[in-house]
Amino acid sequence: MAAISVPPVAVPRTTVSRTFTFEAAHRLTWHPGKCRNLHGHSYRLDVTVGGPLDANGVVIDFDELTTVVEREVIDRWDHRDLNQVIVNPTAELLAQRAWEMLTTAGLDLVALRLWETADSWVDLCVGAP
Ligand SMILES: [Zn+2]
User: Fold this and answer.
1) If pLDDT is split at 50, 70 and 90, which confidence band does 2 have?
2) Residue 5 maps to a domain
3) Ligand 1 centroid vs 75 CA: distance in angstroms?
4) Can you give the pTM of this predicted structure?
5) I need a labelling partner for 80 at 20 to 30 A (CA). Which of 3, 35, 57, 104 fits?
6) What is the CA(51)–ligand 1 centre distance, in A?
7) Which residues are catalytic?
8) Spacing, Cα 37 to ligand 1 middle (Å)
9) Which whole number is the average pLDDT over 27-50?
10) Which residues contact 57 (CB under 8 A, 6 or more apart)?
11) Is the pLDDT of residue 64 over 70?
12) CATH number at residue 114
């Protein structure tokens, strides 16, 4: 009699997300339109961290997540000229820089979304090319 194989039970991965906002200026020197002029945005940054639950039953304490994101990104970019931060501050490159800063600081990021306007955003996630 053949053994019955039982498919492994899928364990959902738990993620924790928090939204941050900052105001900043930039200009895109390569842009053919008005984005080449200095202008500002009310950026929104959504950060998602994943991982196993710790002994307290959390992926990460929301306070710790807040502390790290504010220290590493928000405090450095809020009310700044982003052209002073990176050479070509597109939303895509800013999101990549934020990802680098946050993972270097120890966060186990699984996704990051940077909103440049209320209807325009960039997504980064684990496994994206
Ligand atoms: Zn812009």
Assistant:
1) low
2) no
3) 20
4) 0.89
5) 104
6) 34
7) 35, 79, 116
8) 9
9) 97
10) none
11) yes
12) 3.30.479.10
